[in-house]
Each structure stands twice: as structure tokens, then as C-alpha cells.
Amino acid sequence: MRPDDWHLTDDVDSFLARAGDFLHLRPALHTIPLTVTEALRTRGPHAYGAEDPVFGILERAGEVRATYFRTPPHRLNLTPLTPDESDTLAAHLAALGLPVPGVSADRHTAAAFAEAWQRHTGATPTLHERQRLYRLGTLTPPEPHPEGRGRVAGEQDRDQLIWWHGEFAAALGAGPSADAGSWADTRITHGRITLWETPDGTPVSMAGLTPMVAGQIRVAPVYTPAHLRGRGYAGAATVEVSRAALTAGAAEVLLFADLANPTSNGLYQRIGYRPVTDFAVYDF
Questions:
Q1: Among 159, 203, 225, 274, which residue's beta carbon has the most beta carbons within 10 A?
Q2: 103: Cβ–Cβ under 8 A, 6 or more apart, which residues?
Q3: For 58-76, b where at least 16 C-beta lie within 10 A, e where not — what string?
């Protein structure tokens, strides 16, 4: 295989015209490229940052075998690759001089590409996070159930969502987001954030949903302020949005969990989520 088997484009429509069927074949495994390209298609090329996104496709004998994308300033995202494919991709990107601050992929692909990138560029990879992708089986509300109720966030919750978005990003090690207001507005407009509130009407947790693409919806983000954790609020909010995803007709409801957090992984499995595969995130 040669590095020039990879084809580069900066146009999301061209990318989807060539790779859309490939991504739809395994919607759970490809949930990130599917949801990101849908956002870029509907909200424009700068939905995730001021710079233009970059997409790549690996084709052999006219068949798409793998893809990548990057929405600067974020990390490179890869569909599953063999070690040889990882090496040719690293050579391809290095030859183009494209910046790669990190990579996110299934754990085997991420590790293989991190090693290949180090060989081709000398950059030192550092494991940032291990994640597990879950798929909903039978939804099982938690017991005991916390007091309160879930409700869809509205305009009156905008400031709360912006504040929690910032706290959530900080907890992930991300910098402050300049588009937190746009993030909140989009989710309020489309009813994609549910708040769990106590009987007196105080919001204590939030859970969101991605738009449905290829029959799948992903739960993201799930956030409870640190001083309110351990009371079942996140589980209750997650059940509410999971039920909403099923009602909307999703064939698959997915979510990611940080494997360094046994509490959240245990919670998601108790309410009916089952492991699909593990992912890894590296910084260079």
C-alpha cells in the first residue's frame, strides 16, 4: 500500500458522496464521523472552529476501506485501520505537512497510528484518555430513583447550559469555548438537552443527544456539578434522554464513557448500556 492511496478533500459533501455508504455500514463504530459530518453539513464548515476541516479517504480497487477527518483545532479522528494502513496514513499526512495534535480512534488503531506518527515525525505520543463505547440494550431506570423530574431545557436555561458547558469542557481538559452560546442555542432550539431538576425546580444535572444519523443517536454530554454527584441525578437524566432517543425512532442509542471513571461506567451498565468497543485518545 502507498501513501497516495489516501485521497484528501476539504469539502464535506464531496467526502460524504464518496464515503457516506461506508460510514453507514457500521453506524455505531462510525458514530463520531457520522455526527460530526452531519453538523458540518447542516451548520457549515466552521461548526467546530475557524479553520477549514480536512477529510481523507482510503480507497483500493474503487472501494472505500477507511476514512479520517480533522476539525481544527481538534485531534485527528480515524475509522479502524490495520498497522500498515496506519503507517501509510502517517506518511501521507507528514508529507503534506498537515498538523496533527493528537488522534482519537478505536484503541488498536489509535495505538498503531501513534507509533507510526512517532516514527515519521519524531513526535512523542501521550495517552490522554481511554473510552468505552456503549450501546443501549433494555433501558432500566435506576433504583432508588432520585426525587424530581426531567424536563427539556428552554430559553430560560441558556445561561445555565453555557455555564455547565464550560465546566464540562474544563473537566475534559479542554480550553474555554468561544461558541458556548451557539452550542446552547442549537440544543435549545432542537430540544436536545434534558435537565434533571429537584422538586423545588432547581436544575442539578443535564444530558444531551446528538441528531439522529444512520438510525443512531448518541447521548452526549452528561454532566452533573461535582458537589451534586453521587445522588443519582446523572442516571435519571440519562434515562430520560435515552427514552427520548428511543421515542424518536433511533435503532441504536450510544454513549461514550471515560474508562478512568468506574462510577459512570457502572451506572451506564446498570441502566441497560452494553459495551461495544474501546477507544483511545493520544496527544502528540
A1: 203
A2: 75, 76, 77, 78, 110, 113, 114, 117, 281, 282, 284
A3: bbeeeebbbbbbbbbebbb
Name the pLDDT band for 174 (thresholds 50, 70, 90). Answer: low
Please name the residue ranges forming H helices in the chain.
12-25, 31-43, 83-96, 107-121, 158-171, 180-189, 233-247, 262-270
What gap in Å lies between CA 217 and CA 47, rounded to an integer? 19
CB-side neighbour CA atoms (13 Å) of 102: 14
Strand partners, 257: 132
Answer yes or no: is pLDDT of 248 > 80: yes
Distance CA 64, CA 68 (A): 12
Backbone dihedral region of 201: left (phi > 0), alpha (psi from -120 to 50 degrees) or beta? left
> pLDDT for 89-143, tens place per residue?
999 999 999 999 999 999 999 999 999 999 999 999 999 999 999 999 999 998 8
Calculate the dihedral angle through the C-alpha atoms of 242, 244, 246, 247, rounding to the nearest 10 degrees: 160
For CA atoms 191, 196, 202, 206, the dihedral sign is negative
Dig out the grid coordinates for 266 from the structure: 457502572
User: Considering Cα of 75, then 76, then 79, then 81, what sign does the dihedral take?
Assistant: negative
DSSP line for 254-265: EEEEETT-HHHH
What is the pLDDT at residue 145? Answer: 87
Distances (CA, A) of 263 to 15, 48, 93, 235: 38, 30, 38, 11
Per-residue model confidence as pLDDT tens digits over 45-97: 998 889 999 999 999 888 999 999 999 999 999 999 999 999 999 999 999 99
Using an 8 Å Cβ cutoff, are 155 and 188 in contact? yes
